[in-house]
């Protein structure tokens, strides 16, 4: 005879569904609102920078651009923003995500993602740069393997006592190890805390064709989208030292890139990079900066 008891698998199914719903709710809750960690820095007129909870749109027209900054300064971390760049004719338009110490004058440290717009049909250039104690001149430029104006992508900066790595999605595009303890004169941003910043601004004087091609305001306004406002970083108010191995981004898995990441990084350098200051010996009196010998 058949049993009148319900199948135990139904109880299991209910448990699984509840767990999935809780996980989904937790995932949704993890999406940080802009004002949890960031504040408007300029362009706060309700048009040039528009906050929609977990997304921000920055618009540049002839009257202004806009920018925002983190509320805290950080001494290490794994920072990211998801960005969708302005599309179409964007010559002269510079869209950024970067870390920068304070004050900005003099001996600042800085780590830059700078997206340089161009004429319609010409790929946007991603320029990265690293300043240490006020000195930059470490530009690398590449064309990405996708259109960064077509959709949101993740741009990340891992900065800890061991290395500085810049990622596009999960692909490393720039690596700087911290060799200051063993290589005299080796530059690494290790001594100053930094803000997270982002902006869209008019770079007509230099960004496209060395400044020969300017912003065409008739093609505007130019709008970029930003998401991903959670921050994994050691704030200056933290009771834990920012170099502590207890912070996950300082752990053993983040002290060197993996073999797979190294292969992907070399692939980017070979196939997508079109300028590397380390290869520009004429710029440095037929030599290269010291860090270029350890790339």
Automatic annotation (TrEMBL):
The active site is at residues 110, 114. GO terms for molecular function: hydrolase activity, hydrolyzing O-glycosyl compounds; xyloglucan:xyloglucosyl transferase activity. Its main location: secreted. Coiled coil: none annotated. It comes from the Eukaryota. Catalyzes xyloglucan endohydrolysis (XEH) and/or endotransglycosylation (XET). Cleaves and religates xyloglucan polymers, an essential constituent of the primary cell wall, and thereby participates in cell wall construction of growing tissues. Its EC number is 2.4.1.207. Pfam families: Glyco_hydro_16, XET_C. InterPro entries: Beta-glucanase-like, Beta-glucanase/XTH, Beta_glucanase, ConA-like_dom_sf, XET_C, XTH. The keyword Transmembrane helix does not apply. It comes from Panicum miliaceum (Proso millet). It is found in: Secreted, Cell wall; Secreted, Extracellular space, Apoplast. This is Xyloglucan endotransglucosylase/hydrolase. Belongs to the glycosyl hydrolase 16 family. Residues 1-29 form the signal peptide. Residues 25-226 form the GH16 domain. Keywords: Apoplast, Cell wall, Cell wall biogenesis/degradation, Disulfide bond, Glycosidase, Hydrolase, Secreted, Signal, Transferase.
């Amino acid at each position: 005879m058949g049993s009148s008891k319900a199948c135990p698998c139904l109880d299991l199914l209910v448990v699984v569904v509840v767990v999935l719903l809780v996980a989904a709710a937790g995932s949704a809750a993890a999406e940080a609102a802009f004002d949890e960690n960031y504040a408007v820095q300029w362009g706060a007129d309700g048009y040039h920078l528009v906050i929609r909870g977990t997304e921000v749109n920055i618009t540049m027209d002839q009257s202004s651009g806009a920018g925002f900054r983190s509320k805290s300064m950080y001494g290490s971390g794994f920072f990211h923003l998801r960005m969708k760049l302005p599309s179409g004719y964007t010559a002269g338009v510079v869209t950024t995500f970067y870390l920068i110490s304070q004050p900005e004058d003099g001996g600042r440290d800085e780590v830059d993602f700078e997206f340089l717009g161009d004429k319609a049909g010409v790929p946007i250039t991603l320029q990265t740069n690293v300043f240490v104690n006020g000195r930059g001149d470490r530009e690398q430029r590449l064309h990405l393997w996708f259109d960064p104006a077509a959709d949101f992508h993740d741009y990340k900066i891992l900065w800890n006592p061991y290395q500085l790595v810049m990622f596009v999605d999960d692909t490393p595009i720039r690596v700087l190890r911290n060799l200051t303890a063993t290589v005299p004169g080796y530059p690494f941003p290790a001594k100053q805390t930094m803000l997270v910043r982002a902006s869209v601004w008019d770079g007509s004087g230099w960004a496209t064709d060395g400044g020969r091609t300017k912003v065409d305001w008739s093609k505007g306004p130019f709008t970029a989208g930003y998401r991903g406002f959670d921050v994994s970083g050691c704030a200056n108010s933290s009771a834990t030292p920012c170099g502590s191995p207890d912070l996950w981004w300082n752990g053993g898995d983040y002290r060197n890139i993996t073999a797979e990441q190294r292969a992907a990084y070399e692939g980017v350098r070979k196939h997508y990079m079109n300028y590397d200051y380390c290869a520009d010996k004429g710029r440095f009196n037929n030599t290269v900066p010291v860090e270029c010998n350890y790339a």
